Amino acid sequence: MQRMTKQRQAVLDELTRVSDFRSAQQIFEDLHLQGQRVGLATVYRSLQSLADDGRVDTLRSSDGEALYRSCTTHHHHHHLVCRECGFTEEIEQSQIESWVDSVAAAHGFGDVEHSLELFGVCASCQSKK
């Protein structure tokens, strides 16, 4: 775990303030609007450090951009993400873990790590259609 610098704390505070996933560029812009003087490269480094420490969740958007959110669960979990509004639900499913282990074993793999994001349309957005 790395030392919590002033800049890293500012990035974490910004992610805690919002509930949705944000790009590094969005976080950088939000911090500047608040008067925080944090460079874009520092935002990227801070996000990587926070992700390595398990303090932020990371997922890839449909166009491959890394998105970040403050992690509310500090153990392994997956996400359901709404394609319309970005609402994200953390999910835990033991069946997924069992499936991953069996697929890995069937192919001779061990010590497997994984992440899973399921994209769909949340109930709220479905009701608006």
Question: Compute the gyration radius: what is it?
Answer: 17 Å
The CATH C-level class name of the largest domain: Mainly Alpha
Strand content: 15-25%
Number of helices: 5
Please tell me the overall pLDDT: 87
Structural class: alpha+beta
The best one-word shape is: globular
Here the CATH topology of the largest domain equals Arc Repressor Mutant, subunit A
Protein name: Transcriptional regulator, Fur family
GO biological process, one term: regulation of secondary metabolite biosynthetic process
Cofactor: Zn(2+); Mn(2+); Fe(2+)
Binding site for Zn(2+): 82, 85, 122, 125
Put the structure in a nutshell.
41% of the residues lie in helices and 19% in strands. It is built from 5 helices and 6 strands. A 3-stranded antiparallel sheet has the order 1-3-2. It has a 3-stranded mixed sheet with strand order 5-4-6, with no helix packed on it.
Structure description:
- This protein is α+β, with helices and mostly antiparallel strands and 129 residues long.
- It has 2 domains: 6-70, Orthogonal Bundle (Arc Repressor Mutant, subunit A); 78-127, Ferric-uptake regulator, C-terminal dimerisarion domain (Dna Ligase, domain 1, 2-Layer Sandwich).
- 41% of the residues lie in helices and 19% in strands.
- The protein is built from 5 helices and 6 strands; from the N terminus they run αβααββββαβα.
- The protein has helices spanning 6-17, 24-33, 40-52, 94-106, 123-127, and strands at residues 22-23, 56-60, 66-70, 78-82, 88-91, 117-120.
- The strands form 2 sheets. A 3-stranded antiparallel sheet has the order 1-3-2. Strands 5-4-6 form a 3-stranded mixed sheet, with no helix packed on it.
- Strand 2 (56-60) and strand 3 (66-70) form a beta hairpin.
- Helix 1 (6-17) crosses helix 3 (40-52) and helix 2 (24-33) packs across helix 3 (40-52).
- The longest helix has 13 residues, at 40-52.
- One of its GO terms (biological process) is negative regulation of DNA-templated transcription.
- Its main location: cytoplasm.
